[in-house]
Amino acid sequence: MIDEKSWTKYIMGAIAVAPEPKRTVNVENIGNLSVALKDALTIPDSYLQPEGLRPDVPYDGFSKETDLLPVVDLQSLSTGKADDRQQIVNNIAYACKEWGFFQIINHGLPLGLIQRLRELAICFFHLPAAEKEKASVGQVGYQGRHTYMPERVHWLESLALISGPDTNIEDILRRTCFDCREEFITAVNRYISEMQKIGLVLLELMAESLDLEKSFFTQHFEKKSTSVTRFNYYPPCPQPSKALGLFPHVDTNCMTILNQNEIGGLQIRKDARWISVRPLEDALVVNVGDCLQAWTNGHFKSVEHRAVLNSVKARFSMVFFYSPNALAVMAPPTKLVDENHPLLYRPFTWAEYFPRMQKKRMEGKVGVDTFMRLDHQEDEAT
Ligand SMILES: O=C(O)CCC(=O)C(=O)O
Ligand SMILES: [Fe+2]
After folding, report:
1. How many CB atoms lie within 10 A of CB 82?
2. Which domain of life is it from (predicted)?
């Protein structure tokens, strides 16, 4: 049994020992590559996606569906009026059930913090590749190449930081040398606290939107045990229509809160079509992850999304993956089970789910539906 305290070590171990996919190509580090390719017209074959995966909608291909994606204004939460809150709760219910994605505005995150943190993170990504590599620990910390399958290499670099009880953010970042490192560490920690605050507010609203106790979810999030903050940097790509920033995936955690710069690229799949999410100044993009889909017995949807590229400007996103305490049991409440909504998922903990999900992901299977559903028992032995 894993105790809460050893979770961070465990999660890192789990990632580090997950079987590496076979690489049939020599994948280069994007940190080197994007500099070397600055004025090039083509990219190495290893970054060319197979036909079926190439993005059919460009990064700025906004359609009328784009503007249907719900935008929830949290401003009126501060009035304390029940009607104002109920309106927000209704909007969130619609967004989580129909879209699995929404944007929030007037969320209270200090805008100066976002701006400065972006600048600091971009300083990090502009370090020489060898310096960034020092902050790479298994699959945590800096990653200059992303590949889950041999033919899928992604045009991004990232920095993933875990904020657990034995937080290792400082340990990872202090392996590298750069001028603003200490300020970066302080800003990251502040950002994580702010994200947790917003995350708790959203989880309360989500519980209310399902007619559950306000604290139904949040009581399992009080310890900041398992969340991950990841910075994604997508350099301009000479062939954006043939490559991908991030392959189509669902998030495995409970809830994701994403902050992006003004360059679009995030797309979500709705009714078999890809829809570009419009970057709104000062907004945060929120999405339901797999765990919340299972926990709500499928009432909330965890929706596939991807990041596409452009050839002109670097795109940057900061992503907070919010997960419950490692040993919290996620069991769909009886209120969400009825004739029209038969029980779909069995109870599970993040400690159980995360390592298994990593393994499945390496096998090319992703998602809570592949192994936490009651009707997929046969998969559970693996
Ligand atoms: O950068 C983005 O817009 C998408 C990021 C994302 O989906 C992820 O990191 O899981
Ligand atoms: Fe994602």
Report:
1. 9
2. Eukaryota
Q: Name the token pair of 156.
A: 């991004």
Nearest CA to 140 among 182, 172, 109, 105? 172
* 257 Cα to the center of ligand 1, angstroms: 10
**Which atom number of ligand 1 is nearest to the Cα of residue 245?**
1
Pick the closest to residue 272 from 240, 303, 309 (CA basis).
303
**Contact by Cβ (8 Å): 73, 106:** yes
CB 178 within 8 A of CB 131: yes
Q: What are phi and psi of 240, to 5 degrees?
A: -65, -25
Q: Is 272 left (phi over 0), alpha (psi -120 to 50) or beta?
A: left
List the one residue out of 218, 380, 217, 227 whose CA is nearest residue 299: 217
Q: Are the C-beta atoms of 144 and 81 separated by less than 8 Å?
A: no
Which runs of E-coded beta strand occur in the chain? 71-73, 101-105, 136-137, 140-143, 146-149, 152-154, 157-162, 228-234, 246-249, 255-260, 266-270, 273-276, 284-288, 305-307, 315-322, 329-330, 348-349
Give distance in angstroms: CA of 310 to centre of ligand 2: 18
- pLDDT score of 182: 96
Q: Where are the domains of the chain?
A: 29-324
Fold adopted by 29-324: Jelly Rolls (2.60.120)
Per residue in 222-274, pLDDT (tens digit) is 765 578 999 999 999 999 999 999 988 889 899 999 999 999 999 999 998 99
- Structure token digits, residue 347: 């109870």
- Residue 372 beta carbon below 6 angstroms from any ligand 1 atom: no
Whether the CB-CB separation of 74 and 105 falls below 8 Å is answered with yes
* Residue the block writes with tokens 């894993």: 2
Q: What is the DSSP code string of 128-176?
A: -HHHHHTTEETTEEEES-EEEETTEEES-EEEEEE--TT--HHHHHTTS
- So what's the pLDDT on residue 16? 39
Name which residue sits closest to atom 3 of ligand 1, judged by CA.
Answer: 266
Interface predicted TM-score (ipTM): 0.99
State whether the beta carbon of 146 lies less than 6 angstroms from ligand 1: no
Ligand 1 within 6 A of CB of 277: no
Q: Residue 95 and residue 277: Cα distance in Å, rounded?
A: 14
